[in-house]
Design goal:
This protein is an alpha/beta fold. Helices cover 20% and strands 19% of the residues. The chain contains nine helices and 17 strands. Strands 7-8-9-10-11-13-12 form a seven-stranded mixed β-sheet, covered by helices on one side. Strands 2, 3, 14, 15, 16 and 17 form a six-stranded antiparallel β-sheet that branches. The protein starts with 9 loop residues before the first strand and ends in a 5-residue tail after the last helix.
C-alpha cells in the first residue's frame, strides 16, 4: 500500500507510528488521566494513509496539547505519482493552520514533485509554517529550500528545535546543521531524517566490514537477515549522495549536548521489538534514536502513530502509541514506555566545528543580542580549548589572562545589533 506520509506532533507529547501491536485497549480513560500530568506533546506520523490520521491530530490538538508534528519520509510511494501527491497534500492540509509540522524526503519521494509549490516546496503551505525558522540554501537550486529545514518553538517552558536532514544531504548540509544547532544551544533538538536505523536499532553503516572483506557493514547485515536479492543496504543515505547514519552520528549528532532525540523511518519497525537505540554524545548527553515506521503491518500500517508527552519536570517523556483507524492504544512494552532526557549544557562551541576556540568568540560577538547573550561569553571562556573528544568539563588549553582582557575590552566596544 502506498505510504502517503509520516508526521510527528509536538505538544508535550510526541506521536510515532509503532511496531508489534499486541497489547491494545479501546478505553481511553487511563490515557486521559496521563494527559493531566504532561505539559505538551509532539506527534510523529509515518505511513498515515490519508486524512484520518492527520484529522485526528488536528481534532485532538487542543485536548492533548499537541504543539508540533514530525514527518519521517516516504510521503508517497512513487515520487512521480500525481495521484499519490494529491492524496498526501490533502492529508497534510488537515494540519495547516492548526498544528505546525516538519517533513523530510524519503527515497520514495525522490522525483519531480516534492519541490513544487503545490506540494511541499517554496510557496507551499509547508514553506509558510509558523515555526519554520530557516533552511539550507543550495547555491545551485533555490527550489530545494524545503529539503533541509529547522523549526523552533516553545512549549512547557522549554525551547525546542526540529531539524530535518534530507536523504541526499551531503557534507555541506551537515556543516550547516552543525552551525544551526550550535547557535541554538538553549534549545532541545530533535533530528528528523528518513533512513538512519535498521529495524534492530543499528545504524546504517557504509564503511568496509573488516570481518567480511569486500562488503560494507550494511551488506554484511543484509546477508544475515535479508532474503537473497532483496538487500536494504542500497537504501542508506550514502546511496543518494548523502551520508550513512554512522557518519552522520560522528559528524553531527554526537557533537551537540542539546540533541535529545533522532527520529527516522524507512525500516519496518515491527520486526525486532526494540524501543529505541540509546547512545551517548561526546558531551555526555543521552541521544534516543527512535524508528517509527509500521508500514509492514496490516493495511499498510493501520494508521498507528507515536505520541511523545512531556512531563512537567521537563525531562521525562511518556512515549505512547495510538491508531485513529482502529481507535486503539497499544500498551506493549516496546511502544509504551518512558524516557529521561539529559540536561541541556552549553559548551561554547558556537560554530559547531568540534572545538572551542577564537572562531567561536567571533560567532558569539556577531550574534550578541540575538542568538547569544553576554553570559555566553563566560561559557566560552570556561571551555576554551575543549574539543569534541574531550571528556565533559575538560579543556585542552586555556587562553592567557591578557587574551581574556583583550576580548573583554573588545566586548565592551561591540554594539548590540
Amino acid at each position: 500500500m502506498p505510504r502517503l506520509f509520516a508526521a510527528a506532533a509536538l505538544c508535550s507529547t510526541f506521536a510515532f507510528l509503532p511496531a508489534c501491536h499486541h497489547s491494545k485497549m479501546h478505553d481511553d480513560t487511563h490515557m486521559q488521566g496521563e494527559m493531566q500530568k504532561v505539559t505538551h506533546a509532539i506527534c510523529v506520523l509515518s505511513a498515515t494513509e490519508g486524512n484520518t490520521v492527520t484529522g485526528w491530530v488536528a481534532d485532538n490538538a487542543d485536548d492533548r496539547n499537541i504543539v508540533f508534528a514530525i514527518q519521517d519520509g516516504d510521503i508517497v510511494n512513487s515520487g512521480n505519482s500525481t495521484t499519490q501527491w494529491n492524496n498526501a497534500r490533502a492529508a497534510m492540509e488537515q494540519l495547516d493552520g492548526v498544528v505546525p509540522y516538519a517533513v523530510v524526503r524519503g527515497n520514495h519521494d525522490i522525483g519531480s514533485q516534492f519541490d513544487l509549490a503545490s506540494r511541499l516546496g517554496n510557496g507551499s503551505p509547508y514553506s509558510q509554517q509558523s515555526t519554520l525558522t530557516g533552511h539550507y540554501e543550495n547555491p545551485d537550486h533555490d527550489d530545494w529550500d524545503m529539503r533541509n529545514t529547522y523549526h523552533t518553538f516553545e512549549a512547557g517552558g522549554q525551547k525546542f528545535m526540529v531539524l530535518t536532514v534530507d536523504i541526499s544531504a551531503g557534507s555541506d548540509v551537515v556543516d550547516w546543521a552543525n552551525q544551526v544547532i550550535a547557535a541554538h544551544g538553549d534549545h532541545r533538538v530533535i533530528l528528523d531524517t528518513h533512513a538512519y536505523n535498521y529495524d534492530g536499532g543499528q545504524r546504517f553503516n557504509n564503511a568496509d566490514d573488516p570481518d567480511n572483506p569486500g562488503h560494507t557493514h550494511d551488506e554484511s547485515r543484509d546477508e544475515l537477515l535479508r532474503s537473497p536479492g532483496q538487500p536494504d543496504a542500497i537504501y542508506n543515505g550514502a546511496s543518494y549522495g548523502g551520508q550513512d547514519a554512522q557518519t552522520l552520528w560522528e559528524n553531527l549528532v554526537s557533537r551537540h549536548p542539546n540533541i535529545a532525540i533522532f527520529i527516522s523511518g524507512h525500516q519496518f519497525e515491527d520486526f525486532d521489538q526494540f524501543k529505541y537505540h540509546l547512545d551517548e554524545g561526546v558531551n555526555g548527553n543521552d541521544v534516543y534514536e527512535m524508528l517509527v515506521d509500521p508500514q509492514h503491518m496490516a493495511n499498510g500500517g493501520d494508521g498507528w502513530l507515536r505520541l511523545l508527552e512531556f512531563d512537567p519536570d521537563g525531562e521525562t517523556v511518556h512515549v505512547k502509541t495510538y491508531s485513529p483507524h482502529r481507535d486503539e492504544w497499544d500498551t506493549a512494552a516496546d511502544v509504551y514506555f518512558d524516557i529521561t532526557l539529559s540536561d541541556i549544557t552549553r559548551t561554547g562551541d558556537f560554530n559547531g566545528d568540534g572545538i572551542v576556540n577564537a572562531a567561536d568568540y567571533t560567532v558569539w560577538r556577531d550574534g550578541l543580542g540575538m542568538a547569544y547573550q553576554p553570559e555566553d561569553y563566560g561559557i566560552w571562556s570556561d571551555n576554551f580549548g575543549a574539543t569534541a573528544s574531550s571528556p565533559p568539563g575538560e579543556v585542552t588549553a586555556v587562553p592567557e589572562p591578557t587574551v581574556f582582557l583583550l576580548l573583554a575590552a573588545l566586548t565592551a566596544c561591540t554594539p548590540f545589533s
